[in-house]
Structure to design on (458 residues):
């Protein structure tokens, strides 16, 4: 066996052992042949992961299916070592020789961050996020109990906090979006039946048509919503339209050639210009449904799915059928990620500022003791190390919770919404103001007795 070693030789012995197992399995497995391995490549990614690739001679392969089916047996024979199968440019097995990335079991959503759509973290613990302007249309797949519904609520809640309007459709009695019922951000009530979803698609199209007419009335017809809003007297908010159980709805409402599917396709192809972005979600997707719109879906996210075919349909490669952790997903833009978990009870609850409970307590402390100034001295007095305090100052500025105030000696101060969130009840009961302030101070004194770690971590 010849192995091309292209970075270091310290993995050579392990690679040789793994390659022998791969050859043995392919030789013994029905329908596969170890002689189809054309070459071996040992390589390291930019993130430090070491992979051994068995590149097959696809010109001599009679068919791919037996080799695809052998991937699971290979992983079992290698005692659970991760094995991927790529057929993007020929067929090859990839075996991860280095340690698996350390993934968290769950990462809690911390709250709205101005201008950014926060999705989760990658295997190195780095945030997976993007400006809203880069989201585009989105395609989301995942079977029950693996995180799809949480993800849809996560993006809907952030869009609401960002000032977007929402159009939400879930023919499964609206279970995914129950907490959004009656929200002022909705352009129409949550669609909870197939008939309502069908009508909702027509309403979304009418919104697009209205915006098209408004765009045409501007002298220099704009190409984007941002361009329109720069010229318009009354700016228009973006709209996020989420259609859950989309595949099932299509099949129940006439199939891929029916009016529902065609209406969705028209929206995907024409709505983004007017600031209307679609997220199509479902447990499964067939080629005849996804095919007409797949390349228009800028962001594609795949939780665990029933089979490799669905994973390839969404992402262009297999792998999502092997995900075994709730909230874990593969994407077309960031690789694998652990999606933020958002408690349904947090939807719309005191989230105008996007603060967590711990952050609200900190805001109350800053307002009462430092007149709302978020200085390093104030944060350190609260129990934070200097480095963590600097990071928090930057984070709150980015999220719009604090801003520099030239009228207050250019100090970083909590914005008004942050002050309100952190001083619950201070503006009520003016007749009993003194007593109210005494009660708040008493509460802060109790909090002041906590140790530093508990104060910082909430």
């Amino acid at each position: 066996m010849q192995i091309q070693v292209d970075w270091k030789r310290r993995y050579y012995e392990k690679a040789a052992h793994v390659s022998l197992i791969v050859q043995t399995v392919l030789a013994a497995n029905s329908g596969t042949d170890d002689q189809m391995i054309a070459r071996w490549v040992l390589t390291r990614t930019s993130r430090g992961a070491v992979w051994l690739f068995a590149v097959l001679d696809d010109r001599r392969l009679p068919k791919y299916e037996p080799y695809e089916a052998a991937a699971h047996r290979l992983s079992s024979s290698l005692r659970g070592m991760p094995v991927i199968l790529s057929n993007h440019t020929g067929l090859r097995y990839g075996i991860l020789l280095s340690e698996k990335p350390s993934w968290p079991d769950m990462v809690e959503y911390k709250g709205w961050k101005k201008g950014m759509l926060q999705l989760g973290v990658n295997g190195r613990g780095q945030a997976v996020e993007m400006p809203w302007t880069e989201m585009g249309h989105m395609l989301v797949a995942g079977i029950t109990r693996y995180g799809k519904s949480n993800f849809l609520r996560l993006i809907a809640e952030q869009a609401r906090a960002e000032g977007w309007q929402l159009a939400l459709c879930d023919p499964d009695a609206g279970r995914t979006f129950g907490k959004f019922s009656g929200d002022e951000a909705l352009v129409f009530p949550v669609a909870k039946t197939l008939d309502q979803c069908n009508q909702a698609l027509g309403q979304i199209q009418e919104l697009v048509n209205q915006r098209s007419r408004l765009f045409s009335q501007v002298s220099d017809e704009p190409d984007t919503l941002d361009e329109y809003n720069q010229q318009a007297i009354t700016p228009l908010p973006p709209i996020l339209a989420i259609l859950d159980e989309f595949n099932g709805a299509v099949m129940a409402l006439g199939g891929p050639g029916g009016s529902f599917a065609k209406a969705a396709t028209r929206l995907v192809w024409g709505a983004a210009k007017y600031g209307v972005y679609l997220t199509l979600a479902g447990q499964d997707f067939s080629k005849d449904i996804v095919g007409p719109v797949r390349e228009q879906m800028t962001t594609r996210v795949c939780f665990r799915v029933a089979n490799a075919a669905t994973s390839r349909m969404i992402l262009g490669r297999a792998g999502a059928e092997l995900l075994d952790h709730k909230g874990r997903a593969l994407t077309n833009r960031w690789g694998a990620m652990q999606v933020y978990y958002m408690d349904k009870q947090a939807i719309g609850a005191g989230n105008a500022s996007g603060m967590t409970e711990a952050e609200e307590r900190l805001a109350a402390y800053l307002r009462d003791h430092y007149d709302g100034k978020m200085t390093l001295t104030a944060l350190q007095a609260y129990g934070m190390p200097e480095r963590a305090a600097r990071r928090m100052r930057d984070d709150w500025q980015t999220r719009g919770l604090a801003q520099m105030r030239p009228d207050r000696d250019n100090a970083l101060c909590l914005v008004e919404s942050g002050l309100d969130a952190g001083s619950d009840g201070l503006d009520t009961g003016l007749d009993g103001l003194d007593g109210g302030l005494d009660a708040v101070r008493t509460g802060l004194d109790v909090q002041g007795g906590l140790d530093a770690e508990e104060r910082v971590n909430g």
Residues 194-216 form the longest helix (23 residues).
